[in-house]
Amino acid sequence: MSFAEPLLLLGLLIVPLGVLAYMHHERRRRAAAAAFAAPAVRASVAPRTPGWRRHVPLVVHAGALALLIVALAKPQTTVAVAVERASIMLVTDYSGSMQATDVKPSRLLAARTAAKRFLDRVPDSVSLGLVAFNEQPRTLQSPTVDRDAVRASLDSLAPSGGTATGEALSAALTSLESQVDESGVRVPGAIILLSDGKQTSGRSPIEMAQRAKKLGIKIYPVSLGTATGTIDVQTPSGATRTRTVPPDPATMKQIAEISGGQDFTAENADRLSAAYEKLGSRLSKRTEERELTAGFAGGALGLVLAGGLISLHFFRRLV
Fold this sequence. Notes:
It contains 10 helices and 11 strands. It is an alpha/beta fold. Helix 6 (about 165-175) packs parallel to helix 7 (about 205-215).
């Protein structure tokens, strides 16, 4: 819980000060009563006293005062609410290294399956787009609520070429910048970046992460594959050789940190699906500050009424 006007909480000092003043008053009252009648005859002069009951209404009213002061400080809490409108770009690597089979049945097929599961998790009101990249990015689908269109675009990918991560992020950011609501305000956006290797061409992905931060667009990178992943490539002479294609989690982590997102690593299909499912849950909701002033004010009013009723019950008067 937080407070919009925290300095007003200093008013809570009134409560213990009031308690001390009340205790001082009680000591003076008892001293005056002792001076009025000797202890031996006090029972005959005042045969009945309210005892502890006389303090109950005041204790309840003190609680009401404390709640009222807290209400004045405007308490608020952060709650998760469903996203009503947003745009998410899936930025998927389909470079030649995506044919590696260290992630079964292959990196590309595992990525395609996980992405489709992600489509099923996000609310229908969220628009989804797709940028696929090797040494060049291709915006296969601008943000849309048509899930079938995105699925068809995913099915069209076949691994080939190098890796231009920065260029792909640039294309995704440009697409998200154009997503505005009816009043012309840009809707919230996020990027899920899946890549399995180091960049080989194009602009720096770190530069694009800095651009995303300025736009308030978080990037959630997923590093796919293992350090021992390999593919077979043909040499100019026509011979075939095996080349290792490790992912680049260090760069992906840096992208996430700069943009304010979170990075994931996926060494197998299960971990990749889990990462996408977690992202689906996270990006389907947004945090919102809810003010609790009315609740605390209502509680204070309830205690005031309770104190009055207790006083009526014990003493036949409100205070």
